[in-house]
Amino acid sequence: MKLSARNQLPGRVKAVNEGVVTAEVVIALDGGGELTAVITKKSVEELGLAAGKAVYAVVKSTEVMVAVD
Questions:
Q1: How far from each other are the two terminal CA atoms of the chain, in whole angstroms?
Q2: What is the mean pLDDT of each run of 10 residues along the chain (69 residues)?
Q3: In the UniProt record, does the keyword DNA-binding occur (predicted)?
Q4: Which CATH code of 2.40.240.20, 2.40.50.100, 3.10.270.10, 3.40.50.740 fits the domain covering 7-59?
Q5: How many whole angstroms separate alpha carbon 54 and alpha carbon 65?
Q6: S-S: 7 plus which of 1, 55, 59, 69, CB 3.0-4.6 Å?
């Protein structure tokens, strides 16, 4: 699959924490660090997401906020 999004970060699923309708998917990025995505439980099932599965975190946004203390 090819995507137009430039920010495609490879990693592996670290954890899937399912709620009633949505799930938090924690991804350990190959370059270090973690990213958490909130997606539907149906998407978790359709993608076969589970700890250890190789995935890409794809970020497509028109705005990125940066903050400092």
A1: 40
A2: 88 97 98 95 97 94 85
A3: no
A4: 2.40.50.100
A5: 27
A6: 59
